[in-house]
Structure prediction request, 203 residues.
Amino acid sequence: MFKKIVLSLLCVAAMVFGVANAENVVNPYELANSVASKVIDDIKANKDRLADKKVALSIINNDLMPYVDVKYAAYKVIGTSLKTTSPEDREKFTEAFAVYMQENFASVLSKYTNQQIVPAKVQEVDANTKLVSVKMLIREEGKKDLELILKLRKNSKTGEWKAFDLIGENISMLDAKISELSPVIKNSGIDAAIKKLQEISNK
Prediction:
C-alpha cells in the first residue's frame, strides 16, 4: 500500500514539471499550477499507452528531465565525498543518476490512475529567495488527500527554477537516495555507486 502511495506521489511530480519555458519561470508556485493542468492532459491522452516504456520515456525526457536539477541532486547524493572525486567521476555519476531518474519516472507513469492535483496556494517570492517548497495535494476519489511537497532551487545565473526533490508522506526522495548511496561512495568509491544505480535502472 505504501509503495502504491509513493508511486502516485512520484507520478504527480512528473506531471507538474513538464513543458516549462525558462522565460516563464518567474514564480515557482504559478509555474507548478499552470504547468500541472497541461501535463496532466497530455498524460491522460496517452493513458492507454503508458505501459509502453518508449512512450513513458518520451514523456519523461521531453517534458520532465530538462526541468529537473539533476546535477544539484546528484551532487547532494555524493555529499562530503564531492571533494575527493574527480570531475570525470562526478559527471559519470550525474549521468547514471539521470538515467535512474528517467527509468524510475517512466515506471511510475504506468501507475497513473486519474489522480487529481489541488493547486498550491500562490505566494510572492522575493528576488533573493533561492529555495522554495511548493505544497500540493493529490486527490483521488474515495481516498484521503495526500500531501506532496516539491522542492525547487533557483539558478543564480539564469533565474530559472528547477525541481530537485519531492517529499511525500514525510519521506524525501532525495534523502532516501543520500542514505542509500552516500555510504557506498564513501566506503567503496563512486564507481560502486554508479554500478548500483545501473543495476536499479536495468531491473
About this structure: Residues 87-109 form the longest helix (23 residues).
